[in-house]
Amino acid sequence: VKRFKMGLREELLKSIWHAFTALDVDRSGKVSKSQLKVLSHNLCTVMKIPHDPVALEEHFKDDDEGPVSNQGYMPYLNKFILDKVQDNFDRLDFNKMCWTLCARKNLIKNYLLITDEDAFKIWCIFNFLSEDKYPLVIVTEEIEYFLRKLTDAMGGSWIEEKFEDYKTQLNSKEQCLTAWELIDLIGTGQFSKGMDRQTLSMGITEVFQELIMDVLKQGYMMKKGHKRKNWTERWFLLRPSAISYYVSEDLTEKKGDITLDGNCCVESLPDKEGKKCLFIIKCTDKSFEISASDKKKKQEWIQAIQTCISLLKLGLPAPHKEARQKRKELRQKLLAEQEELEQRMKDLQTANENKQRELETMRKKLAEAAADAAEEERRRLQTQRELQDRYRMDLEREKMVRQQMEEEVAQKSSEVEQYLQRVHELEDMYRRLEEALEDERQARQDEEAVRKLQARLLEEEAMKRAELEQIHLQQQRAISQTEAEKQELENERLAKEQALEAAMQQLEQLESERRGALEQYEEVMKKLEKAANKTRSWKDKVAQHEGLIRLIQPGSKGPQLITNWGAAAFTEAELSLREKSWQEKKNRTTEAQ
Predict the structure, then answer these.
(1) Chain-centre distance of CA 543, in angstroms?
(2) Which of 108, 444, 509, 520 is at 20 to 30 A from 166, Cα to Cα?
(3) Strand 138-139 and strand 265-269: pairing?
(4) DSSP one-letter code for 484
(5) Cβ contacts of 16 within 8 Å, gap of 6 or more
(6) Is 210:237 a contact under the CB 8 Å cutoff?
(7) CA gap 555, 567 in Å, rounded
(8) Check: CATH 3.30.200.20 for 217-317?
(9) Strand locations in 409-512, DSSP E?
(10) Keyword set for this entry (predicted)?
(11) Displacement of CA 68 from its chain's centroid (Å)
């Protein structure tokens, strides 16, 4: 019941909206109170509602600003009229009253091929098929539905291409029509070419009766009487809840109604009493036997009546109303899906734009990073070339210094050998002289101490030179390492350069010590020279007084070891020990690398 009242309210509001809009002469959206009084009185009269003339004044007593808008009139309309309405009035009279108010202003009759009555019927059909939002319009789908119905009612054939062309024109505008545009479309005969006015009027009437008057089927059939049992031809009208039958199709004299409900049924009957195509409608209180004109009509009527009974059992509205509701729900669903799709597209577009901006930012950052990396690489290569040049120059200087040192060492070694050879000759010549030998023995002891000191210094020098070579190799490895270790290698290089400088200082210190040893050696040589002079003087004395004597020769007559420091500086055992110690140090240095 609630659903029925809501549907009735929406149907009534559409007609009232047309009437209210027609009263808005200057199109300001407002109507004067005097006109609203007349409209309210007419509505109450047509819908059989007690009218209270004071209610309107009472309702708007606080609003003296003048005309009332549609939104301002709606509370009064709902409270004093629509809330009180019952389904006990003639809707056709209600629609005609509203039509009379709005047709004067909007209907142009000059070029229309239809009558005012037909225009009224199209207006009612528009209200039935229009959307439930204001201002009222009829969408393309409902226009096509109405035109198809009208074409079928006129017995014509539907031309899809023609409507598609017209729909294309609509799409370029607003894809919908107002009530007056729909009346112009039908009244100009755009979709009824080849049909006369009477056929068009009959088609409009048939569609009007089906959609507005709820006439699901109509036509002549024979009905069997209940009292005299005679067969009489009647004009039958099938509505969702009843079948009315009249004397003729002009509906001037109604003969009765067959009330339908969920308990009724319709059945086919065999031919009898000279009548064919029989069927019977069984109701709660009585039954009705009817004869159709042919089998097709009989089957159509049985099917239509059975459909009405099934809808009554299920509590559903008429088929065309249910179909209209399904179409609206489908449109709303499609609209919601379209809006959702558009929203998704907007979201996707927004997300895409954000991604594009992020990608652009990333591209800029990558380009900047690439430029920075190229600049950093250029700087690194330049620094590496500078370091390589510097290391190469250092190595060349170091090589030159080493060569000079080696030349000096070789020169000093040759000098030492010459000095030692002279000492050996002196020792051979003056062996026999005891004092000279004692002095010479003491001098040799001093010489051996100096030699040991020099050997130690040379050994330390060799070790330092090995360390220098090791540092040099490490510096060469450090040059080939990656940029990520450059700073660490630079620090190590600085540390190694400091170590190299320290080693160079130690080498210089050793060189100075070696020079000191050479100086000591020179002092020893001077002592030897003094001893030699002394022995020479003794030799002269001995030659003068006693003649030649055989000199005492110390040591073995066998072959003696010759080193840089003279004959018999080291014994064989001492030399092997020194070689073993030097080899062990070399192995430890190699393992440490």
Answers:
(1) 121
(2) 108
(3) unpaired
(4) G
(5) 43, 77, 98
(6) no
(7) 11
(8) no
(9) none
(10) Cell membrane, Cell projection, Coiled coil, Cytoplasm, DNA-binding, Membrane, Nucleus, Phosphoprotein
(11) 52
Mean pLDDT computed over 173-201: 85
Contact (Cβ atoms closer than 8 angstroms) between residue 287 and residue 280: yes
Q: Which helix (H) or strand (E) holds 466?
A: helix 434-479
Q: How is residue 537 written in tokens?
A: 């003087």
Compute the half-sphere exposure of residue 459: CA atoms within 13 Å on the CB side of its CA.
13
pLDDT at 502 > cutoff 90: no
The pLDDT of residue 1 is above 50: no
> Rounded to two decimals, what is the model's pTM?
0.56
How many angstroms separate the CA atoms of 180 and 202, rounded?
20
Paired tokens of 339: 């809006």
Q: Determine the 3-state secondary structure of 14 from DSSP.
A: helix
Dihedral angle of Cα 309, 314, 316, 318, to the nearest 10 degrees = -10
First to last CA, the chain: 103
pLDDT range class, residue 528, cuts 50, 70, 90 = confident
Confidence band of 173 (pLDDT split at 50, 70, 90): low
**Closest Cα partner for 11 from 97, 138, 129?**
129
**Interatomic CA distance for residues 514 and 511, integer angstroms:** 5
Q: What is the DSSP string of 552-588?
A: P--S-SS---EETTEETSS-HHHHHHHHHHHHHHHHH
Residue 210 has pLDDT above 80, yes or no: yes
**Residue with structure tokens 């003048």?**
66
Residue 173 tokens, joined: 């505008």
Cα distances (angstroms) measured from residue 70 to each of 59, 77, 314: 14, 10, 38
pLDDT at residue number 121: 93
Around Cβ 204, how many Cβ atoms within 10 Å? 27
Q: Where are the domains of the chain?
A: 1-213, 217-317, 348-417, 419-468
Structure tokens at 308: 């009405």
| Residue in 449, 305, 484, 476 with CA at minimum distance from that of residue 377 | 484
Distance between CA atoms of 428 and 388, rounded to whole angstroms? Answer: 59
pLDDT tens track for 298-354:
999 999 999 999 988 888 888 888 888 888 888 888 888 988 998 999 999 999 999
The predicted-structure confidence for 556-567, as pLDDT tens digits, reads as follows 555 555 455 454
